[in-house]
Amino acid sequence: MAVKLVFLGKLADLAGAPERDVAGPLDWDGLLAALGPQLAAQVQGEKVKLALDGALVADKAALAAPDGSEIALLPPVSGG
């Protein structure tokens, strides 16, 4: 199976697509490797949040995404 990555906002532009499937299960290091260097650098920042199956992940380094799950990558919210 796979883990679905969902990129929102400017992260979708950087990823080149709004979604990507990667081999699971997936931990933090595996996620960074799957993203590639440019996108991984953005995601490591404190302002980018992760949600695993709809629930925010408090500690990104403790990410443990089993097969069939979804990780949403949430960029900082911009005001307007």
TrEMBL record:
InterPro entries assigned to the protein according to its UniProt record, in alphabetical order: Beta-grasp_dom_sf, Mopterin_synth/thiamin_S_b, ThiS/MoaD-like
Gene3D superfamilies, sorted: 3.10.20.30
The protein, known as: MoaD/ThiS family protein
The species this protein was found in: Aurantiacibacter xanthus
